[in-house]
Structures are given as C-alpha cells and as structure tokens.
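Milestone 3.1: sequence recovery, worked example.
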C-alpha cells in the first residue's frame, strides 16, 4: 500500500513532465511564421505543347517467327532390378562364392550384392591427379544393409578413405540365408579402386 501511495504522485509528475517536453519539441522556435517573400507558388495549369518539336515516327518491329521447339529427349529406360551376375562378374564386384543360377531357391547361400554405389572421386585428388585404392571391411545385416565400414588399408594416403566409407554405406545386399532365414555376415572385405579417366 505504501508503494502505491508513493508511486502515484511520482507517476503523475513524470507524466506531466513528459507532456511539457513533447510540447516544447512540437512548438516552433522563435522563427515565427514564414514571410511572404519566402513562399513558393506551384502552377498546376497545363502548358501548351510546343508545335515546333521534331517528332520521330517509330514503327514497332516485326515479331520474330515462332521457332519449332526441339524434340523432347528420348525416354530413358531405367531398370531398378540389378542382375547379381553382372555385379559379380562384369562390374568388378567381389565374388562371394555364390552360384547365381536360381536366386529364389530356398538353399543356404551367402550375401549377394544388389545395389553398389560407386564412390565419388574427391575433388582434391582429381585436381592433383592422384590415383589409389582403399581396402574396406564391413558387416552385412540380416536386412541387407552394409554397416560399420572400416578402412583396413589404403594407398597412397587417406585422401580416398572418406569417399570409400560413404559409398559402402549405400550398398545393399541380398542377405546370407541359413536354414531359410537371413543372417548377418561380418568382416566382408572389398577393395575400391580410384582411377582417373584417361
């Protein structure tokens, strides 16, 4: 209650002081009203056009002829299915000792590569003309994911290691089957080679 009794007069004083300061800021100083000679008159009347002007007749240019649109590119045929025989033989994939004859047979088999993403050549290595290889070891889960890739060996330096690890993490496999059930495989090795096109 004491705060309220002390605060009200103080608030009233501050409010009156602010109004006085604002009044001082808004009112003009001792300059007074402007004199008659200082006023500027603006004539808004339309002036007559000068008839002696040289005018230039400009014609609109003709529209260019419509050019035929280029034919659309031929449709790309993308086959989402990957033939494991191609991966194991023609593309330089490791052969995990699998007979790729009938993949749907219920026999025991090892993991088969389905999707292999090639590594991205590092810009730093490409600009320097560096080539090399990385030996990577990884595990394959029962769902076919390549997990926990680790570099075992490399040449000439660690410049390709990160690209190799990123590529292996994107690989997909048809997992190993034991007694009709998919199981994990551990310590699979693969060497990724980095060579510049010549």
């Amino acid at each position: 209650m004491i705060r309220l009794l002390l605060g009200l007069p103080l608030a009233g004083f501050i409010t009156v002081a602010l109004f006085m300061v604002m009044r001082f800021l808004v009112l003009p100083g001792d300059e007074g009203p402007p004199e008659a000679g200082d006023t500027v008159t603006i004539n808004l009347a339309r002036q007559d056009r000068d008839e002696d002007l040289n005018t230039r007749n400009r014609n609109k240019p003709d529209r260019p002829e419509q050019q035929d649109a280029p034919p659309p590119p031929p449709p790309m045929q993308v086959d989402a299915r990957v033939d494991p025989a191609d991966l194991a033989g023609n593309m330089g994939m490791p052969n995990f000792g699998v007979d790729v004859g009938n993949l749907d047979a219920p026999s025991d088999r090892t993991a088969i590569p389905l999707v292999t993403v090639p590594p991205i050549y590092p810009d730093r290595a490409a600009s320097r003309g560096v080539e090399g290889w990385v030996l990577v070891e990884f595990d394959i889960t029962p769902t076919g994911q390549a997990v926990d890739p680790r570099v075992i060996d490399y040449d000439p330096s660690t410049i390709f290691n990160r690209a190799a690890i990123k590529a292996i993490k994107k690989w997909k496999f048809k997992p190993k089957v034991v007694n009709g059930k998919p199981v994990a495989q551990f310590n699979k090795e693969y060497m990724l080679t980095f060579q510049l096109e010549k």
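Confidence is low (pLDDT under 50) at residues 76-107. The longest strand covers residues 146-155.
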